[in-house]
C-alpha cells in the first residue's frame, strides 16, 4: 500500500489521479476491515501457530532444529515469529514488495549461508497450512500472497 501510494504521488505530481490509478486505493479501502481482522487473528494466535508448526516439523523430522550438537529450536522459533509478523504486516498494508525487499531477501541469504534450506523449506510448507486453520477462507485469501512469497523465497 505504501509503495503504491508513493508511486501514485510521484506519477500524479501536478495532476489529478485517474480512476484507473485510484482503483488500488478503492480496493484496499474496501478490504481494510477484513485485513485488520485477519491481522488481529494471526497476532492473537501467534503462539498457538508457532507450537503447531513446531509440532508438525518435529513429526516430519525429529532432528529438524539440530545443528550438530546444538539445539536451535529457540532461534528458529524467533525467526519464524519474526517472519510471520512481517507477513501479517505485509497483508495488512497490502505491500508484499516491502516484505520481499525488507526481510525475505536478507533472510534467504542467511538461510543459505547457514545451510538451513531443508528446515526453511519444511517450515514454509507447513506454516501456511497452520495459519489457514486459524482464518476464514476470505482471511486466508488475504494472507495467501505474503505466505506464498515467503515460501517461494525461503525454500
TrEMBL record:
- Mark the transmembrane ranges: none
Give the lineage.
Bacteria, Bacillati, Cyanobacteriota, Cyanophyceae, Acaryochloridales
Q: What is this protein called?
A: Allophycocyanin alpha subunit ApcA
Alphabetical list of Pfam families matching this protein = Phycobilisome
Listed InterPro entries: Globin-like_sf, Phycobilisome_asu/bsu, Phycobilisome_asu/bsu_sf
Listed A to Z, the keywords are: Bile pigment, Chromophore
Name the family the entry cites.
Answer: Belongs to the phycobiliprotein family.
Q: What's any one GO cellular component for it?
A: phycobilisome
A GO BP entry: photosynthesis
Q: Which CDD domains match?
A: PBP-like (cd08919)
Amino acid at each position: 500500500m505504501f509503495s503504491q501510494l508513493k508511486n501514485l504521488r510521484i506519477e500524479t505530481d501536478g495532476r489529478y489521479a485517474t480512476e484507473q490509478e485510484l482503483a488500488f486505493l478503492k480496493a484496499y479501502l474496501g478490504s481494510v476491515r477484513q485485513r485488520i481482522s485477519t491481522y488481529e487473528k494471526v497476532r492473537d494466535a501467534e503462539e498457538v501457530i508457532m507450537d503447531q508448526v513446531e509440532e508438525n516439523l518435529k513429526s516430519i523430522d525429529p532432528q529438524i532444529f539440530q545443528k550438530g550438537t546444538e539445539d536451535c529450536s529457540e532461534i528458529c522459533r524467533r525467526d519464524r515469529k519474526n517472519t510471520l509478523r512481517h507477513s501479517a504486516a505485509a497483508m495488512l498494508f497490502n505491500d508484499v514488495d516491502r516484505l520481499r525487499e525488507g526481510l525475505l531477501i536478507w533472510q534467504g541469504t542467511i538461510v543459505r549461508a547457514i545451510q538451513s534450506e531443508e528446515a526453511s523449506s519444511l517450515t514454509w510448507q507447513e506454516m501456511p497450512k497452520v495459519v489457514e486453520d486459524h482464518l476464514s477462507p476470505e482471511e486466508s485469501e488475504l494472507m495467501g500472497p505474503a505466505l506464498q512469497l515467503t515460501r517461494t523465497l525461503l525454500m
